[in-house]
Structure formats: C-alpha cells, structure tokens
Amino acid sequence: MALLAMYVGDELQQMYHFVRSLAIADPFHKAWDNIFLLFNKLL
User: 30: closest CA among 17, 18, 13?
Assistant: First the structure.
C-alpha cells in the first residue's frame, strides 16, 4: 500500500503504511530504509 501511495505522491499515507509495517509481530525491516528515504526526499 505504501508503494501505491508513493506512486500518487501522498507522503502522509506512505508514512502511515511504513509505520504500520513496523508495528506488527513480524516487522518488515526494509520499511526503516523506506522511511529514511521518504524523510530525505521531504527535507
């Protein structure tokens, strides 16, 4: 879902889905890298 939000340019929705992917029992660790990329893009 975060990738779809990235395609349409919705940064808030991207962040929501990346954080959700980290907050589960078996987190998707690559989401940290994607969050850093998103912050670098915004800053």
Answer: 18
As a whole number of angstroms, the distance between CA 42 and CA 25 comes to 29
Residue 38 CB burial class (10 angstroms; 0-12, 13-18, ≥19): middle
Write down the pTM of the prediction: 0.75
Condensed to tens digits (0 to 9), the pLDDT of residues 1-15 reads 677 677 787 888 888
Look at the chain and report how many structural domains it folds into. 1
Range of the domain at 6: 2-42
